[in-house]
Design brief:
binds pyridoxal-5'-phosphate, alpha+beta, 31% helix, single chain, 214 residues, 3 domains
């Protein structure tokens, strides 16, 4: 049976196309390597090992073809390998890959901010704060809400996932495994689990902080 793919009416073999048993041999080998090296705090539920994608279709490393209903947890909204997205990424990569917008300026981030603020709801003028991830967005929202309201408390719902960083995790209530071991029973104790030291010149008090290390 032949079907059409996307809106270009090009016939494509029947999809999805799966060969049992799953995971296939290549996927099983990847899972084995993953088990030893990748943090167990990633709570993957399905043994799907991505090889490549084309719009709504994704191939695993054993050439099984799936209909992608996840869209990168809703962040790849135009599907995989969209030619315009690929071209834009290639063009930018050839120009420059990264120049921290928190320290310097570049026109592209203003251009995107103009477009985002034009479609963001509400009449009030907008300002954009770019983040690297969902968790960082939640952290930023937490900080902004406290800054603006001066109020300390935040309401979240049981069952919700907000991310794995500390602030976002404090609001996450979906799976116990995300939180287990990260919140000490008595967080008011004096013992210190970790001192984060960023060497910055002109901070002579820093060496004294080593005393709190176990
Ligand atoms: C609703 C929601 N908030 C926050 C996050 C955290 O995003 P990230 O994994 O990019 O930090 C996720 C990720 O699954 C999410 O689904």
């Amino acid at each position: 049976m032949m079907t059409t793919s996307g809106n270009d009416a090009i016939p494509s073999p029947q999809r999805p196309h799966l060969q049992a048993p799953l995971p296939g041999p290549r996927a099983a080998a990847v899972l084995e390597r993953d088990r030893d090296l990748i943090s167990p705090s990633y709570t993957r539920s399905y043994p799907f090992v991505m090889a490549r994608g084309e719009r709504v279709w994704v191939w695993d490393v054993d050439e099984n073809v799936y209909l992608d209903m996840t869209a990168g947890i809703a962040v790849t909204n135009v599907g995989h390998a969209h030619p315009r997205v690929v071209a834009a990424v290639q063009e930018q990569a050839a120009r420059f890959l990264h120049m921290s917008g928190t320290d310097f300026y570049y026109e592209l981030q203003i251009h995107l901010a103009e477009r985002l603020s034009a479609i963001a709801p509400g009449e009030a003028p907008k300002r954009i704060f770019y983040t690297n991830s969902g968790a960082e967005s939640v952290e930023a929202a937490l900080k902004l809400a406290r800054y603006v309201t001066g109020r300390p408390r935040v309401l979240a719902f049981i069952g919700a996932f907000h991310g794995r960083t500390m602030g976002a995790l404090s609001l996450t209530g979906s799976k116990p495994v995300h939180r287990r071991g990260f919140a000490p029973p008595d967080a008011r104790g004096h013992s210190c689990a970790l001192c984060l030291l960023l060497p910055v010149s002109g901070q002579p008090h820093l060496p004294h902080m080593w005393r709190c290390l176990p």
